[in-house]
Amino acid sequence: MRRRLQTVAALALAAAAWLAPGVAMAGETSDWVIVVHGGAGAVTPGSYSPEDEAGMRRDLGRAVETAVRILSEGGSSLDAVTEAVRLLEDSPHFNAGRGAVFTADGENELDASIMLGRSGAAGAVAGVQGVRHPILAARAVMERSPHVMLAGEGAEAFARTQALEFMPAEWFHTERRRRALEAAQQQAASGGSVPAWGTVGAVALDMRGELAAATSTGGMTNKRWGRIGDSPIIGAGTWADAGCAVSSTGWGEYYIRAVAAYDICARVNYLGEPLDVAARHVVMERIPAMGGDGGVIALSADGAISMPFNTEGMARGFARSDGTMRVALFADE
Ligand code: ASP
After folding, report:
1. Could you give phi then psi for residue 314, rounded to 5 degrees?
2. Distances (CA, A) of 23 to 19, 317, 325
3. Could you tell me which CATH number the domain at 9-93+111-119+197-330 has?
4. Which has the closest alpha carbon to 101: 224, 247, 261, 234?
5. For ligand 1, what atom is nearest to the CA of residue 251?
6. Hey, which of 197, 222, 225, 293 would you mutate to test ligand 1's pocket, going by the most ligand atoms within 8 Å of its Cβ?
7. What are the angstrom distances between the C-alpha of 93 and each of 107, 172, 236?
8. Distances (CA, A) of 109 to 152, 161, 180
9. Active site residue 174
10. What's the pTM?
11. Pairing mode of beta strands 200-205, 149-151
12. Hey, whose CA ends up nearest to atom 9 of ligand 1?
């Protein structure tokens, strides 16, 4: 109860603005942590209407608060990342679930994955349509199938056997993504191409010291030919082991080739690099050297957080059991 009251008090304080790390409440240790992202990319102060910016901050905050409720009551990191991502999938402000980007054919094809740290259990779905919460489908693959990854119609058939919710195609559509598709197609017609992305993800550490990671996306605007990015690929878009958890966002082709999420944790585990050094190396050096960009959220079993991005901004937020909570969009926040 004491912990819950402190959490509620901390959330009330944090609702207004970023809290400096120094405001952590005395006597509390970081025995649980939640970190979420709503995608890296051209996230700049001028790129959203005031309503959209407020909506993004509000929905990121809700995802964090939902995970805080779970973790502060002794719930699992797996439930925390599942619920945080599930809420962000329902938000029209992010490229996952409702509000996902359009394919070249004007459809939404959704990818998601989830992983549990100590056991290494993992599940993923790729290129699914109509599934309201692809992260629940990924979790069902992990928990209730003998497989790790299901794709397309087969994944949808499996989701139906699990009684997961389906929505009509229009439910996923937003005007903003429609305009983005038109812009991308005009650029493609004139020989240019501007990759546009979003994606949502979460990593969490629970009171038992268990890490989990989850990622969900609509992929890239104007994608075709069944293109699948890094988000549903274990090791690229999502990774969790006993000591480290990562969810990626960015230009998926490069994150796949860099095996980005796994590489960060491998550097921590095998080279003994601090989490932030490892995450920065991959996001700020390796991936740009290959020609890609994006960001990650990373969390280690000692509660350290790293959120590097080499794009203009990245929607992100976190909360810890010491009472710290933050939500931000832009680079200078
Ligand atoms: N990484 C995702 C993909 O390439 C997109 C994103 O992060 O926004 O599908």
Report:
1. -155, 125
2. 7, 16, 10
3. 3.60.20.30
4. 224
5. 4
6. 197
7. 17, 11, 24
8. 8, 20, 16
9. no
10. 0.89
11. unpaired
12. 219
Size of the chain, expressed as the number of residues it contains: 333
CB 95 near ligand 1, within 6 Å: yes
Q: What is the pLDDT along the chain (333 residues), one digit of tens a residue?
A: 444 444 444 444 444 333 333 233 333 445 999 999 999 988 888 888 899 899 999 999 999 999 999 999 999 999 999 999 999 999 999 999 999 999 999 999 999 999 999 999 999 999 999 999 999 999 999 999 999 999 999 999 999 999 999 999 898 888 888 888 888 888 777 655 555 557 999 999 999 999 999 999 999 999 999 999 999 999 999 999 999 999 999 999 999 999 999 999 999 999 999 999 999 999 999 999 999 999 999 999 999 999 999 999 999 999 999 999 999 999 989
Phi and psi angles of residue 236, each rounded to the nearest 5 degrees, phi first: -100, -65
Q: Let me know: does 67 contact 204? Beta carbons within 8 Å.
A: yes
Helix ranges, 99-151 (H): 134-144
Residues sharing a CB contact under 8 Å with residue 260, sequence separation 6 or more, in sequence order: 230, 236, 237, 246, 248, 254, 282, 283, 286, 287, 296
